[in-house]
Amino acid sequence: MEVLRFQANIPEEVALKFDDGKAVEGRYGDQVLYTLTDDRVMYLPPIAAKRITDLRIRKNELMSVCKQEVARGQKRSIEWVVKRVDPAPETAAVQPAAASNHQASHAVRHDNTANSSTEDNRLEHQLRASIAMVQEQKNGHLAPAPQDRPHTQLESALITAIAAASAAEKYAAEIHFAVHFEHEDIRAKAISTLIGMQQNGGQR
User: pTM surpassing 0.85?
Assistant: First the structure.
């Protein structure tokens, strides 16, 4: 069985033959074995496998996997970049109703979906703006926020996500394990944290 060998900084577009991989022990530690639709196999580190799980990529879905070399000062490390290729647009087909009461029911569901989508877009816009603001403050381009005002739930969620990512990266460096969180990872964690805070009445 042919094994897909990843070359540094060259993305490979592949699709899984099965939804899940198999945990195995390789030459360089724990790995996850995946069978591809072309009957080749590939071995990925657990952090890359987790990315596939987080993206909810299933069998026959095309994705891009890249073994990326990253230089930090004089040190070089490996980061695995996993992306879905040409994701299918989220659409909902509405069938014509035979009776007026069915039409009204469809209209209500459509409004609810639209409201939910609008709320998601609003939340993501706020998160993007807040992440950009934090980055600007980090670079010294903006004055820090006054310390005598309470943090909003959104700020608290972002601070929690950023602090968790920073602590994880620091620990990974101490054990010589290459890991780096992108804005997308922090945004996803912040959304989860914010939802949890709202469900618990603002308590973390």
Answer: no
